[in-house]
């Protein structure tokens, strides 16, 4: 479950993580927003509330004052970003920024432990910083048997190039952020940017939280007091949920559809190793029925339609019992229905009973007829994918 920025910041406040003074308003509460603007001294930052990334670059964050708040509010209230409608506004005091940093905690799929990432560079292009110079990017796995202590946080702050008051403030905030990660059963908690002001104060200028769906029953009391907006997934994620499909938008440049035990996470890891970033995670909760596979295919194709960053789509199938024919038919119908604007690459592995109704040669022919390029092994597919990503 993804939280909107104002929801995550409400939780941060409970944990005494400093955030700029803010309030949340529904899209039709312009009058209330104008009144709150006066409390902020007549100048503020107006932020659309969406779950998708890229809000700043899409024009979803604007500085406002009493002369332009009406015009900008009305301009942004109907804004769509990556196919997602604006769910309201966060109106927030502006900060005099001296420095932007990054803090994030997620689950490291390799070690299966929480991973704390801290960077001396934050803001809209932080991903590019991670790919380039990494001297001031600190990564620390958090061992279940080891408490995250202040000296660990200080070490990370020093690695980020901080010192003095900035270092001690950042270290204290790191401890609180990890407490949020633990207490709220998070899969991700992120501050980007973490701002140091010209007066030397530190603030979480933005906040992102993703709570593990399987742990929501433990968080109902807190969430009911914070969450004001109904749907907590992107439109595609909600559509998938209604069809017993687990779908997560990740924002990368390679779309993925994988069917077979254990393949989903492996595919995402291999996408990264080939120089790409996963655009999505998808899995089925309701078995490999043809109609479910067709719907999964459609959802991934819709993601491709909405996101111009995506360069290709990868399909991997590994079966020993589930009928290959039903999967192939579902994928083919989904592609025939929606089409695809990027290359689709596939690897099919099937043995034993799964080949009773369709053999591998027939499956590859069916795929080729809808424009899918088949490969005998994952190695060859990812080599081709890597070449695609290197071309303009």
Automatic annotation (TrEMBL):
GO terms for molecular function: ATP binding; metal ion binding; succinate-CoA ligase (ADP-forming) activity. Keywords: ATP-binding, Ligase, Magnesium, Metal-binding, Nucleotide-binding, Tricarboxylic acid cycle. Transmembrane segments: none annotated. GO terms for cellular component: succinate-CoA ligase complex. Residues 9-221 form the ATP-grasp domain. It comes from the Bacteria. GO terms for biological process: succinyl-CoA metabolic process; tricarboxylic acid cycle. Gene3D superfamilies: ATP-grasp fold, A domain, ATP-grasp fold, B domain, Succinyl-CoA synthetase domains. The keyword Nucleotide-binding applies. Belongs to the succinate/malate CoA ligase beta subunit family. Its cofactor is Mg(2+). This is Acetate--CoA ligase family protein.
């Amino acid at each position: 479950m993804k939280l909107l920025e104002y929801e995550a910041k409400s939780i941060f406040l409970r944990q005494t993580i400093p955030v700029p003074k803010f309030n949340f308003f529904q899209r039709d509460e312009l009058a209330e927003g104008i009144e709150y603007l006066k409390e902020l001294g007549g100048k503020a930052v107006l932020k659309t509330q969406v779950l998708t990334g890229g809000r700043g670059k899409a024009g979803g964050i604007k500085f406002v004052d009493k002369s332009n708040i009406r015009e900008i509010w009305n301009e942004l209230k109907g804004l769509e970003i990556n196919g997602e409608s604006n769910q309201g506004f966060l109106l927030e005091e502006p900060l005099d920024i001296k420095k932007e940093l990054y803090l994030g905690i997620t689950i490291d799929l390799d070690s299966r432990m929480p991973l704390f990432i801290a960077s001396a560079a934050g803001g809209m292009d932080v991903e590019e910083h991670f790919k380039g110079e990494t001297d001031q990017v600190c990564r620390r796995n958090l061992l279940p048997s080891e408490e995250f202590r202040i000296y660990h946080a200080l070490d990370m702050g020093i690695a980020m190039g901080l010192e003095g008051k900035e270092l001690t403030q950042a270290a204290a905030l790191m401890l609180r952020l990890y407490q949020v990660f633990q207490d709220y059963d998070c899969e991700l908690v992120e501050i980007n940017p973490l701002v140091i002001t010209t007066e030397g104060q530190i603030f979480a200028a933005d906040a992102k939280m993703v709570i593990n769906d399987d742990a929501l029953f433990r968080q109902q009391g807190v969430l009911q007091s914070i969450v004001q907006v109904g749907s907590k997934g992107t439109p595609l994620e909600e559509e998938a949920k209604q069809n017993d499909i687990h779908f997560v938008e990740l924002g990368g440049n390679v779309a993925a559809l994988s069917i077979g035990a254990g393949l989903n996470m492996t595919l995402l890891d291999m996408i990264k190793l080939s120089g790409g970033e996963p655009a999505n995670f998808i899995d089925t909760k309701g078995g490999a029925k043809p109609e479910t596979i067709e719907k999964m295919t459609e959802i991934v194709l819709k993601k491709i339609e909405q996101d111009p960053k995506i360069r290709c789509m990868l399909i991997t199938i590994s079966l020993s019992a589930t009928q290959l024919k039903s999967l192939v038919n579902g994928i083919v119908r989904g592609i025939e229905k929606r089409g695809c604007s990027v290359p689709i690459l596939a690897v099919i592995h099937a043995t034993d009973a799964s080949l009773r109704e369709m053999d591998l040669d027939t499956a590859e022919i069916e795929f080729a007829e809808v424009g899918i390029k088949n490969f005998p092994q994952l190695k060859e597919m990812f080599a081709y994918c890597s070449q695609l990503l290197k071309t303009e």
